[in-house]
Design brief:
membrane, disordered N terminus, alpha/beta, 408 residues, Rossmann fold, endoplasmic reticulum
Length: 408
Amino acid sequence: MAAKETNSKMNIAIIHPDLGIGGAERLVVDAAVELASRGHKVHIFTAHHDKNRCFEETIAGIFPVTVYGSFLPRHIFYRLHALCAYLRCLFVAFCVLFLWPSFDVILADQVSVVIPILKLKRSTKVVFYCHFPDLLLAQHSTFLRRIYRKPIDYLEEITTGMADSILVNSNFTASTFANTFKHLDAKGIRPAVLYPAVNVDQFNEPTSTKPNFLSINRFERKKNIQLAISAFAMLYSPNRVLKHQAITNASLTVAGGFDKRLKENVEYLEELKDLAEKEGVSDKIKFVTSCSTDERNALLSECLCVLYTPENEHFGIVPLEAMAAYKVVIACNSGGPVESIKNGVTGFLCSPTPQEFSSAMANLINDPQEAEKMGNEARRHVVESFSTKTFGTHLNRYLIDIYRGKED
């Protein structure tokens, strides 16, 4: 069986909406790199790829990246984002359909509406990677928004079910998938879990550990970054019992993906700066927007631990990167981090309150030796369970299985 897998070289297309620098993009790039390393021909198609704001692998020549539809709007007067995303991805799908020969397998993610278009080529199998049901991420707060979202939400479930195979990023997402897409679940459609991964080789053992806390996330409100700022501010509260030197030296770096084209990114960054000012710790917090991979790795190397603040995050690649860099992670006790972090061993799973986060932070400041010990255990955990090699092996097996099904 292994020999047959080795000899099965495929022509694979990957379709992704916007090849930026978020967690979903990291997964897509890792998938392309791993599949290419196994001898497959891999080609990424996308509606946007800024060579000045992307992962280095996308411009390294490992695989080609082709852009279609970059002229189409991402929004209309800061509204109708979902509709614009659908139109952009449909444009990409039609270009792949009419301008390229058949692929053995097409891997699509985030936007399922492309699936029926891609399946018009009957010789091609389509695999859909569901990061999280989009209808749960969208707002349905007003009557007009509910009317606007109703056909989009309906299309998401119908088109997702048309994929030849469905993958999700965690058991948490798998259960959410079943509870959200009830018609698909009733039909017996069950997604397989394929955990994202991290390239552990890019992280060296840290040479020094400063009492600096690090938050890495896109500047979006759902990432709950204000929790990190409020928890950090509590370290300076008169009620917090800490060594004076630790208090005066502690700092927080808030880094992450930032796109000035996105109104929310711009507004949320200003809100966070205002919060830091209100909490009286603005002089101890540094904001870093859209740092490169090397800059991110340097920040990880120098910090004491990483604060990961989203609630019910479907998986979360940042905790893996932090643990691969020998760092403890303090995260909310919900969603994907519950599956990736060993509580009390590689990090702390806390209630999403400044009090609990701050308490865990204080413990690490007071016991840096324990932080180092946990960081070493975190590294071992990621190497064993979440390396890109492990991810690539599992993905390769899924795609070869679907390819064999096509041949049979």
